[in-house]
What does this fold into?
Amino acid sequence: MVARLAPALPLLGLILLAPPAALARAITAHAGRHRSGTVPGPTAAQLQPVLDALGRSDPLACALAADAVLAGLSGGRRDGSPVEDGAAHSLERALTGPVTAPDAVALLAGHLGDSSACVRRMAAGLLGRTESPEAMARLRAALRAGQPGERQAAAFGLGEREDPDVRELLEGALRDPDAAVAATAAWALGSTGDARAVPSLLVAAGHVDGRVRRAAVAALGGLGDRRALGVLVEQLGSDEAGVRAAAAEALGEIGERETTPALLARMKDADADVRLSVVEALARLEDARALEALVLCLSDPDARVRAEGAAALGGLEDARAVDALVRATVDADPRVRAAASESLGEIRDPRTAQALSAVLGDRVREVRRAATRALTHLESPAARAALRAATSDADPEVRREAVRALGR
It folds into this structure.
């Protein structure tokens, strides 16, 4: 439910936060053009009430709203259903269209130095999404001459541009005296997808500030270049947990099994977030050498790690994990029980039908759904008997899944 509502909630927040009269004028002006068949980007008159509302809002609400706009929701709902025409849709379309109007570019450029970090980020992001030469010039100027917050916003905006010329600008920003600016530049270089940035990011991975190291490590993972493997393995031993976690994630993204031993060595890290990142990376690698360690992590004190470990074992499809996964189906945390059930379905061992049948009595419907899906992969009389029992479950999704499986 949360996943389905997530795209709409920030947009509703924008509607509620903005002054009604000003926002209504912006919506009405755009709606007329939308009905006529042309959907231009926002004008300054449309952007101003939204920027004002964001500046007055709670920082978290502002960040959620800005993320919704920068995510580009104008193509329709993420579940594929059509979006009805109306005030919310018109505002959405106006905000997510490319900014081309000169007055809008000037307004956004003026907000690169706004007192609100969220407003600065949104202004820079919208400037970065347009091909306007003036927008590029404004971002370039802010990166070189602005205050730290303005330079950071400019780096973010440049990372949004699909322009090979931004690489050298961002590589220069890696040397900015302000660590927040340098970290944003590192992130932005990763988002460009330009492998030419790898050497500069390798240097940045050794920066004195952990924020910069973490951003550079994450960017290297995003670029997926083997040249980063040595540095990333080295950063698994960083004295900062955030850097270690980022290094593990990056190694998972690059996906080279030669790094499995280095990841396994961090399975007992003192920080739960690092252990989680390591297990997620091992899940991507699907290396059988990780089997024993993944089984052991089913006893981790952190439920997130146990759940991810259970899911990773399913990816290995190794029957040696069955006993441990069966035990995990009675874990105290429903996320672990659900993941263990799903993985038993992936392994497809008919001997697990009895254990999965017991899970159908779980008090949490998501767990029962996982067990039902798992049973659909088993070919045995016991599995079919369990599915027949599931057709009477209180949850309609469980019933539907069981009926579908029995009809095959």
Q: What stands out?
A: The chain has a mean pLDDT of 86. The CA atoms of residues 168 and 197 lie 9 Å apart. DSSP finds 26 helices and no strands in the chain. The domain at 168-267+274-285 is CATH 1.25.10.10 (Leucine-rich Repeat Variant).
